[in-house]
Amino acid sequence: MIVRREQLWQRLGNLLSTELPPQLLPQLLSPLGQPLLLSQRRATLIVSRVRLFALLFAVLTPLWSVIDLMVFPLTLWLKLAALRGLVCLAFFALLWLYKPNGSLFNAYRALAILFAIPTLFYIASHTLLGAYQLSSFSAAVGAGYAFLPFVLMAGLAVFPLTLAENLVMALVLLLAQAFAGYLSWTTLNWPSFAGAFWLLMLIGGVTSLAGISQLAFMIALVRQAIRDPLTGVFSRGSGEEILSLHWDAAQRNNSALAVAFIDLDHFKALNDQHGHEAGDQALINATRQLQLSVRSTDSLVRWGGEEFLLIMPDTDMTQARKALERVQANGLGFRPDGQPLTASIGLAEYRYDQLQSRRDLLELADQRMYRAKAAGRNRLCALSSPAVA
Prior knowledge:
Blueprint: H1 2-16, H2 36-63, H3 65-71, H4 74-97, H5 104-130, H6 136-143, H7 148-155, H8 163-183, H9 190-226, H10 236-253, E1 257-264, H11 267-274, H12 276-293, E2 299-304, E3 307-313, H13 317-330, E4 343-349, H14 358-374, E5 380-381
Parallel strand pairs: 4-5
Antiparallel strand pairs: 1-3, 1-4, 2-3
Helix pairs in contact: 2-4, 2-5, 2-9, 4-5, 5-8, 7-9, 8-9, 11-12
Cofactor: Mg(2+)
Enzyme class: transferase
Transmembrane segments: 50-71, 77-98, 110-131, 137-159, 166-185, 197-222
């Protein structure tokens, strides 16, 4: 069973032509479990493209009234023009009110509003047009309104969405199409409606593949940009960004936030005696051990050389100490000579230490790490006094 699952992920990865390892492919199916930085960048991109679409629709929607005026009766044109005016204002409001802030919930809401506006317009215009007897030419122009769901479904392709997100959006558009058919039940041309519905489903499948492919390349690019190439953990730049996000959340929710500096002991001597290749392998082994000992919600950052930063959101001082004691108990691997690889650890916590900025949090953890080194290394320091915990 496990072999078949791995083969499935491998085939999916080959189809998408990405460098994603199999363990990351589930991120294409659902937003649950996606890294914080990926969610932030994806949310920013989604909102930016929502605003671009809103601008495009806000400009083009009222322009079509010129065509309506040429073919429809004046009473129908006035109603459609008023409807288009409301839609135009709604698009401009969306463009004005929504700015990228890195929140995936905010991105979902913007995306929902973007597609809700033309969907409601489609249903309302469909109802209006159905109440009038149109000539052959005006009926042909009116039939153009029926293409709006297809435009919206195709528009999904520009957003980096997971399979679950694509299915939800496509389902809403399909339900709108079905509801429009229900409104004109008595005059509905069933063969034509069934063909259009099938085509809409087909377009939805193609756009889902396009959105997933976009997301796959985005995951690969973000992973390359935010990860340390040697160890695979977060790089310092991305670590600072992650800490900033968690600090803001801790202040907003008055929640705990712990950080720990982990400095591998006597690592320069290891490099000098055994070479940098052996040192690199020791770093890789140490990061693997660290990742096995911490939670999936914690972020491990290579801060520089042999120094790591562990960011633990929603973790108070007591919980953080227990986690780091578990790290020490599990070990960090071995040096080339067979001796255990140890570390000096400095721990600080936002609420426990009553800190005013994330820079203070980092500096205090760094100071305590140096106290642990000064006290003999291979220990954890979580006190402000010279004593070592």
